[in-house]
Amino acid sequence: MTATWRPTTALLRAALVSVLLAALAVVLGRPDLLVLATPLLVHAVACVVRRPVEVPTATGTLGVGAVREGEGTTYRVDLEHTDAVEHAVTAVGRHRWTVLRPANGVVSATASGAGRMRLAMAMASTRWGVRPLGDGLVAATSAWAGWQWGPVRLPMRTLTTLPLPGRFDSRAPAPHPIGLVGTNPARRPGDGSELASIRPFQPGDRLRRVQWRVSLRTRTIHVTSTVAEQDASVLLVVDSGVEVGESGGLHGLASSLDIAVRAAGAVAEHYLHRGDRVGLRMLGSTRQSALSPAAGRRHLRAVLETLARVVPGESAGLDPTRMRFRVSAGSVVIVFSPLLSHTAVVTITTLASRGLDVVVVDTLPEELDIGDDRRRALAWRMRLLEREDVIGRVRRHGIPVVAWHGPGTLDQILVQLGRRGSRPRPVAR
Predict the structure, then answer these.
(1) Strand partners, 101
(2) What is the predicted pLDDT for the residue at 121?
(3) pLDDT score, position 138
């Protein structure tokens, strides 16, 4: 590979064949051979006379640096100083979870005479993650295909594919809202939209709260009282220590990590759109393993980008009992885990022992391809029996475990957690 102009095989062949035919015509006295050599000689002379001097430069760019699963972008190769270029071609490497158009990853273009050229290729990502794209080669030829520039290796670009949050919606309020302003009904009275009771008028009550029907019937002014509305704090814990199953991308089978990442993204998007605060903690090998609870669209983007950088594997030296989760009292902790690693189980029980409301979302896929190996099937069956024992141990600690099935997954669990806080607790004397 070279970044300078060099003669093509066609030019060398034309020059060599024309000289050979001309020599044979002189030696053998064959004017017909000279006639055959004339076009090739003209081609060679024209290419030598019009030898390019200015060397093109190539830059590869992506239309956007981050997309959602299934979305696409455009990879563009811009060539500058192309006055001598007649035809250019680029070939981009194909990677897993990437769809190119055209499928072979080769795009060509003819010069327009503007001194610059652009070769564009559409590509889409079918699975979340951060992966390299745009690695390939670009080459160009001059007029009459006499000189060739390249092929030159293109610089690699990085495309961040954010997880496409699954369908999720919850009508259940947060069990213990602890913020100032939000949409979750609190336990204390305040200015909200949910009715608490009808009581006699007190100084300071607003006239719009007057309940006229009750006031006329009782001959005393009554008003409606409401409960305050606060925002909630939710901590999402994603177990990426182990990945079970093989991912088929957006339109194929999902692994345990696919389910966890997409479910966490859906829950984060739901609560952040409601104005609540969401934090994130990863239990696996990733650079940024924690995000403090915050609100807003910018924080949602940070959560999705952190989920996109998840790498399966246990973090070295991780002690769940000494981890700082940066979560305040009254927060709801939602753990997404297939419940197959010791780290996840210890983390769940540790959080519950601190008095937090913990919910475990089981992310083990329903369909797993174990293969025809009987020993492997037997080993997996024994592993499932151990997992059932772990789930039972977690539930005995009062921690609910529910499988992920999209909208309404957490409704009943959150309602039960809210009632649990209002029940009287026995006190030892």
Answers:
(1) 122
(2) 92
(3) 93
Fold for 233-420, please state it: Rossmann fold (3.40.50)
Pinpoint the residues of the chain covered by CATH 3.40.50: 233-420
Q: Partners of 148 in the beta sheet?
A: 6, 141
Q: Please, where in the chain does CATH 2.60.40.10 lie?
A: 57-162
d(CA 382, CA 376): 10
Question: What average pLDDT values come out for the chain (429 residues) when binned by 10 residues?
Answer: 81 90 87 87 87 89 89 91 90 89 90 84 90 88 88 89 76 52 48 65 78 83 67 82 85 88 90 85 72 87 90 64 67 88 84 85 83 82 88 87 83 72 46
Backbone angles phi, psi at 112, to 5 degrees: -105, -5
pLDDT at res. 186: 47
Q: Angle 266-272-274 (CA atoms, 0-180°, nearest 5)?
A: 110
Q: What CATH superfamily classification does 57-162 receive?
A: Immunoglobulins (2.60.40.10)
Residues 276 and 349: beta-carbon distance below 8 Å: no
DSSP state string for 9-72: HHHHHHHHHHHHHHHHHHHHT-HHHHHHHHHHHHHHHHHHHT---SPPEEEEEES-SEEETT-E
Report the C-alpha gap between 275 and 186 in whole angstroms.
15
CB neighbourhood size of 312 (10 A): 16
Identify the CA nearest to 99 among candidates 249, 258, 245.
249
Give the sheet arrangement for strand 136-142, strand by strand.
5-7, 147-153, 136-142, 85-92, 106-110
Sheet holding 66-68, edge to edge: 66-68, 157-162, 129-133
pLDDT of residue 423: 47
